[in-house]
Amino acid sequence: MSSYLKVSGTKVVDGDGKEVVLRGAGLGGWMNMENFISGYPGCEFQIRTALAEVVGPIKSEFFFDKFLEYFFQEEDAKFFKSLGLNCIRLPFNYRHFEDDLNPRVLKEEGFKHLDRVIDLCAQQGIYTILDLHAAAGGQNTDWHCDAGTHIANFWLHKDFQDRTTWLWKELAKHYANNKWIAGYNPLNEPTDPTHAAVVKFYDQVHDAIRSVDTKHVIFFDGNTFASDFSHFGDMHKKWQNTAYSIHDYSGYGFPASPEDYVSSDEQRRRMKKSYERKREWMDQHGLCVWNGEWGPVYARKQYDGLATDAINERRYKVLKDQLAIYNQDRLSWSIWLYKDIGFQGMVYVSQETSYMVLLKDFLAKKHRLAVDAWGADTTQVRHIYQPLIDHITKEIPQENQNLYPFPVWKLSDRVGRLSRSILVTEYLVKEWAEHFRGKSEAELDEIAKSFKFENCLRRDGLNKILMDNAQTWSSS
Questions:
Q1: Annotation marks residue 293 as catalytic
Q2: What is the DSSP pairing of strand 217-221 with strand 181-185?
């Protein structure tokens, strides 16, 4: 490895100026755990606190450390490489590197697993992109920034922004000489209601990173969940070696899809139009685009029964048609996601493992209550929440109903986030933790081992599509 990757016009290139199309996945649910990925209710900080109360802080820390160790190992990197993929996006939580009660004091232990996985990937010829998925204060309105609220306080308190700038400078110092890191993704899916603060912050964090690292690419997400660059103006002229990240999820790939996806001309037209709208600003200015997240979710036999295979075949059609669009543009992308407990991952934890057996009934309850916002199937609880939606619709004037981040969050989405994904989950956190009461370290280790590659199943339909696509690229 002799050179850093860099941005040249609309492309990512190596040191010889040869185009490198990054194709890969996000390692979600690892150094930034998520409820639907890892199988718990609410936010990571809530379950860490609850587990420490149930088993004690020493055992709790042991369990989570083992979880991080087993979640991605050499076998995972080798499998990933075998599919012809060349880049992994590494989402992480600021709490690994800084405590809220001890701000701006770097926790060196936070590098333990991040360094390990970056090195494992490098050994297989896989680039990595570092993604701050959860920033102090919460940079967006959703669960995955680990703030426990729907208010993105990151944009309301300058100190949260300054702490994040400080952290990125520390990270950039640490990784400045690592050529297998493709770049830095400073903030996942911001939701800045002013649309101006995010641009100002990006300028600030850009300068901080560049003060210690002039080599690595910076990947900036658009505002409103990486969909909107309309307020970025001419700021790109100030930023060096920078690409711009969209997240291109298609509604056709989720349970709430307005219709079954059959790959009709009209459906493919809508899919492409949505994608082109997200990248419009970059195309106007001749800038480099990276699709940092995309991909359908999948049906599961324990919940969807006989309809599972037919649903998943439709989801694979969505996947193929999105890839066809991306291939036309030679787009770099990172599908969401590599590993989980069975909803979206390329590999997923077997139902026979200790973790899944222990939490089988609880996970079924969580699914029935639709408390995970991502891809929620609200069929069994819609009758409970519809009266609240109707009440708000009746009592609130129409012009006041579309609160930011509308239109990504419609009124029904907001009600679901606040009532199910925040309120109800608060009451489920302790119930999740109680499953671990009385477990020895050996038992906790066995439970954590559930996430090892050898204990996972492969989503063959998804992986074949990705591998075939990679082979098409290599042959061309």
A1: yes
A2: parallel
